[in-house]
Amino acid sequence: MTQQTLDEFEKTVRCPSCDRDDFGSERAMRIHHKQIHGESLAQRGDRYRCSVCGRELRTERGLTNHLSKVHPDTWDDLQEDGVVLELANRG
């Protein structure tokens, strides 16, 4: 895995509405989004984007499953680095 590919991932989950990036999990960020921004992310249609192939998936679990099955070498590298996945900011 190249450094550029690793740099595409953040070590925390980022809110797509305000760019706050100190959430330790998808669930914590989604609770914040509903409370602070007044809508769930399901209503917004935000997705998790695979930085390897660009495929967008609805959940963090979907992306981790995708990475582990379709891009196992990349997934192994991310796990070694302790990276948490980030919502793709769809502006």
From TrEMBL:
Gene3D superfamilies to which the protein is assigned, alphabetical: Classic Zinc Finger
Give the protein's recorded name. Answer: C2H2-type domain-containing protein
PROSITE patterns given in the database record: ZINC_FINGER_C2H2_1, ZINC_FINGER_C2H2_2
Q: Which organism is it from?
A: Halobellus salinus
Residue ranges of domain C2H2-type in the record: 48-71
Q: Which domain of life is it from?
A: Archaea
Span of the secretion signal? none
